[in-house]
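Every protein is a chain of amino acids, and every chain bends into a shape of its own. Below is the pair of lines this work produces for a single protein:
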Amino acid sequence: MAQRIAKIWIDTDGGVDDVLALACAYRDPGLSLSGISTVYGNVAPRKAARNAALVQRLAQADLCPILVGADGPSEGHWSHARQIHGEDGVGGASAEHRLDYEDHVVTESGLDGAAEAMARFARRIGPGGAIIALGPLTNLAHALQQAPQDFAKLGAIIVMGGSMSVPWVRRNGQEFNFGSDLRAARHVLEQARNLTIMPLDACRHVVLRRARLAQMLRSSPDRLGQFLRRAHQHYMDAYKANEGIDGCYPHDGLAVAALAKPDLMRFETLPLMLDDQGSFPGRLIISDAGNSIRIARAIDQRRALNWIEACLNGCSQD
């Protein structure tokens, strides 16, 4: 029996875990990437588009459109994460590549154009499609606000963001994706149907250690593997300095896995809303006033890492 292929749209803010997620999306045999939009976040949306185009080229994938979307939040101010992801978003790894990979792929569409493209995808694909948002939710919220009817039959919306608990190392900060645009996050939580959340605290169940990444890529000598190895060095150095782990949390890759391999995770459906009174922007709380939302609560680390390895080496996994 042929495997059912899910068509997906990815909204990305161009960091190291984003390019790993894109690589997994291109290589998982059950997924077909139809389009990409970019949003401010880890880096500016134009840099995020450049990184997405580079992964597309290195993965030797069929070309799909890459649209440069929102360059700032709907309210408040944006603080980048270049200290974690590097000036280019991928630890300097893009400097080794010519820029012609962007030709005929990247479009400067702006917020409205990105939102229109996401809505068009949702309307056209319907139940067989999913949107996976890996950064701040400004593009997605605008799309839901402008054309809510187009999302009525979409199979799934998966967002990486929010947190049920406050990690100790983040106690004086925020959950980056939701906290970067709380108005957009609130709109998505209230309006999106078939919504699944991959929260920060669940992602921290999976540590991709430097030695394991090297092992994964040892049998993957292609240019994509070399690029990912180079991109992760700065990222993992930052985690070692900030959190004492010689590795990283593959947040965005796990959001892709939530669609591709949901059996790796334990989900709960809970009435959730943003905690507007707390000191950790982006924290989610259980409330009778919240919408019923599916959220990942636990992840099998061994199987999740095996899935990432299978994707990077182009192998199918049962």
In short: The longest strand covers residues 265-274.
